[in-house]
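Work Package 4 report. The design task specified in the project plan requires that, given a folded chain encoded as structure tokens, an amino acid be chosen for each position. We show below one input record used in the internal validation round.
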């Protein structure tokens, strides 16, 4: 039984043919992804500890970041220096404070601040389930962090500027290539 207001992933949500194989392959390859994302999260906690204070009571909460175009999701547990990011199947049954889902390119834009969160939500480009307070706290923390995608990924300082230019160009191209929804 789950606590009221704590969403569980919707089994089969957005499932497509071939997702089973792709999900299996992504789950096998998850250790280096988890290691890199967890290291980046913990680095952010060392460099900008005040950002994690903005999470308030949601500091230890789990957030499920669920790209609708991938068969996996990312469970983010901020916890500052003890934070962790794990790769889970999209239908992960573990409860979380909030689930944020949408196309990967939109979710990345939310994390690096290149996408207006309100416009994405009200334009239905992202979906939010669960505790709205938790989502607002995460949004405020990300906004206060004011970190580029390269910084969030923990890329070395000497290559960040070039990486940010490349990542920004890729995100813009991916947004343009997305079919219009309506």
């Amino acid at each position: 039984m789950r606590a009221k207001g704590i969403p569980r992933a919707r089994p089969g949500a957005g499932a497509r043919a071939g997702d089973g194989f792709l999900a299996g392959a992504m789950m096998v390859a998850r250790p280096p992804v988890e290691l890199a994302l967890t290291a980046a999260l913990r680095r952010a906690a060392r460099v900008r500890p005040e950002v994690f204070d903005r999470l308030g009571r949601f500091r230890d909460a789990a957030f499920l970041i669920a790209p609708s175009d991938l068969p996996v999701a990312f469970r983010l547990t901020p916890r500052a220096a003890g934070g962790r990011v794990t790769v889970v199947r999209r239908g992960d049954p573990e409860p979380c404070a909030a689930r944020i889902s949408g196309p990967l390119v939109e979710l990345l834009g939310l994390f690096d601040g290149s996408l207006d969160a309100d416009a994405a939500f009200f334009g239905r480009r992202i979906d939010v389930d669960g505790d709205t307070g938790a989502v607002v706290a995460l949004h405020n923390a990300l906004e206060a962090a004011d970190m580029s995608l390269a910084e969030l990924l923990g890329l070395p300082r000497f290559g960040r500027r070039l990486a940010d230019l490349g990542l920004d160009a890729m995100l813009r191209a991916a947004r343009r290539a997305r079919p219009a929804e309506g």
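The chain has one domain: 19-177. Validation will be extended to a larger panel in the next phase.
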